[in-house]
Amino acid sequence: MSRLFSAYVIVDWSAASKAATGTDCVSIGVLKRDVRFRLAFDSFTTTTRAEAEKRLGLILEDLKKRNEKAFIGFDFPLGFPTGLAPALKLTTEPRWRAVWNWLDKMVKDKVDNTNNRFGVAAEINRRVTDGPFPFWGCAPRDTLTTLQPKKTRDHGEGDLPEMRLTDIAAKTGRSIWKLYYAGSIGGQTILGIPAVSRLKAAKADAMKIWPMETGWQTLTPAELDGVDLVVAEVDPMAAKANPAPGEAKAIAQLRALAEQFAKLDEAGKFGELFAAPKGVDEASLAIAQTEEGWILGS
Rounded CA gap, 106 and 119, in Å? Predict the structure, then answer.
């Protein structure tokens, strides 16, 4: 079987509120073939999300000119725990897209990284519970009636789930509702989904979101006819990375994951990762496809 992709792009997103340096930068790792058809890795770090979107656009434009298909992995969830759309009284289907559209309208993310992620989270809390739940975590200066620095209570019966099914299966320990402090992913998700949504709007049917748009199936070249890009959630921390001399650990993780995917693709096995994960029941698969998303390879 021929390989599915010519390039593997892994993105480490950021929720920084100002132009960032170090670990708060957005990092993009690109593994693609050079003029001699050998895989070569390159990386980019940007101080703002706007710069990252521009850089990603240039990368994809170059691949398009070369008529090469690309896989793009983002390190944040592409969906929220089941039930958020109806809790927000969003009635359009599918539910994941309804939430994306709502975030597109609500999120304000300026070119200098100034953003309203805390305000958006507070508004979600107001609409869902009229209190500081389920989102939590912010600096004291960002405290609002419906958003508190600390978690105010545990999730109980009748609440939105604390974690997505994929986080439970992968034992990540990550809750999307945590907005601030070490290990938080809520801010990246609120700011990241609109960026992916803009990319989807630009690429239309030439880009497919996994598993929401692809469904649960082993991908083959035939399935990707007319498709330039496949986007999925990934976990760079899952890759075993050995940094090269002078290489930052975060960049090494992007490289290691891209190399892992490329190796599977060369062996004709990468497409298998897009099929339904083993041991997951049909009801859970339906929730993941229509609302929550899934971490590729978990």
Answer: 9
Residue 282 has a CB neighbour count (10 Å cut-off) of 9
Q: Tell me what percent of the residues of the chain surpass a pLDDT of 90.
A: 93
As a whole number of angstroms, the distance between CA 139 and CA 209 comes to 33
Total residues found in the chain within this entry: 298
User: Given the structure tokens 């803009």, which residue do they identify?
Assistant: 198
Distance of CA 233 to the CA centre of its chain: 4
Handedness of CA 200, 202, 205, 208 (dihedral sign): negative
Nearest to 4 by CA among 238, 272, 203: 272
Q: How far is CA 185 from the centre of its chain?
A: 10
Whole-structure pTM value = 0.96
How far the first Cα of the chain sits from its last, in Å, is 23
CATH code that applies to domain 7-77+188-292: 3.30.420
Strand (E) or helix (H) holding 30: strand 26-33
